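Async update (no meeting this week)

Hi team, since we skipped the sync, here's where things stand on the single-chain job. The sequence we agreed to prioritize is pasted below, unchanged from the tracker. I ran it this morning and attached the output directly underneath so nobody has to dig for it. Comments welcome in thread, and please keep replies under the output.
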Amino acid sequence: MTAKQRLSKTIGIVSVLLVLTGLLAGCSGKTLKFNGTEVDKPDDVVKLIDNQWAQYVASGAKVSKADSSRCYFQTNDDVVNDSMLCGPIARLGQDQVGWDQVKLKGDLYGEKITLTAASDFSFSALKVESALYRPDGKTVDESVQLTEPDAPEAELGKLKIVAGAVPTASATSGADALKHQLTTPSSTLTFGEVKISDRVGGADDRVKAPAGSKFVSFPVTQQGNSSPFSSDVKKTTSFYIVSGTNRYEVADLKGPTVAIAVPGDGKGTMIEASYDGLSQTYDLDKAARVGEKAAGYYVDLQADAKKDDAHGAKLLWGDAQNKKAPFGIFDYNSDADRAPYIEGQGWAADGMIWLGVSISASSQLGAEEFSSYSNGKTDYKNFVATVEGKNYQASKVEKATGLFSGADQIYFQIPAAANAVQIKGTIEDSASRSSYSTKGPLSLKATYSYPSTTFSFAPQSAK
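Output:
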């Protein structure tokens, strides 16, 4: 063999080796490991997951994806994560573009491990933190811009219930929870954080806001008569959603999350709760009520006075010891409670609350030991409630009504935040002589001083 022939043969062998090396490199890529073991044929794994994902996409809800959307290993250097990502993809019912994720499982065959899908695909909008890798060298096209598939258009001002969590405020107590509530005698609403978007709903009930409008969504719970001031009520609460000059009445506000399409950018949307002529407003953007209406509902104080403050006494008038001359005995117990609204009284003024002092008493009037007086009448005069040195006159007296059967009720309006109040006044008790009695004056009137009495109210959390 000549030198020329030997050189030609050598060049041919080298060329073949280079081609084979290039083919092997193109097919297998870098060596990957899963749980410490080399992955067998990673290019076949990718092809398998690509095909399964294509079938999954075709059989599910509407999607938008690019021609370059495909499946990738998640790797850290040469170590394969336990799940693969397929995408990017925009799914109907999802607010963000994301990835479909599938778990991997490995089966050992000799010294290598074969990977297959271990779960169904699930969508995730989380940011991809790991490196994405395919043995064929294809990478994610960062220039792709995907949009969610089209959805039906919603009606302006029509409330829609959407999936969501209950308000975070409902997990708090005391003053913190009260900040996120609207309360009427019939119900209490608790609100969560507001969200403004172009679309709401899941894949099955997705809708888009009409042109020039936005969806305002917020978590809300509604509890009937959940206030500590609850009582039997004869009226219902009307609810409204107010956006700019638009005011939409809604039949009910029950979540877990509700949404409504409103004109404009959705900012400044308010909730109104109207009961017996009084409307309270909650600002969704500021997560706070507007003004001081029905203020008593939002002070962290119990409705009933502390039990230790329940007072009773036996008041005496005239010759009550010997009962030989005109005499009077007024034996009473008194208590107090607070309420922003009282059936028959209506609403307390802004920033104020009704204070009801109930007096349950038995009284006796006589002139001699055997005389009998009937048709008795008790009057409460000059009753004053004092809060931090300022006096508030009694607004009204109701006889034999109130929290206790047979109790008389004296009403005051005091500052809603007052946790202690001092009460004093005068009691007049009068009666006429019975027709079958011949002794004593025709009528008697006894005057008693109701002793200065302090009622205090503990925080609701102290229950």
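Quick observations from my side:
The CA atoms of residues 272 and 281 lie 5 Å apart.
The chain has four domains: 1-26, 33-133, 160-291, 307-462.
Reply here if anything looks off.
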